[in-house]
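Before we proceed, please read the two lines closing this message. Report back on whether the structure tokens fit the sequence:
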Amino acid sequence: MAIALRIFHWIVTIGLIVVVILQPGRSAGLGIIGGGAESLMGRKKKGLDALFSKLTVYLAIAFMATSIALAVVGR
């Protein structure tokens, strides 16, 4: 059980790293005028940007869950 959990944890970890690296940079929208206007207007994410955002959230939740599970199993 512990070995399967560790393997799944490594897969989730590598997936999280890859998804974060593949996300487009946000430096263009960090300006005071540009970034504020986009966030006030409710700019929606489209295409791969939305997919990467959702994948990041799901993989981060899976990473935390497997980390906690490994800590409990390791006792």
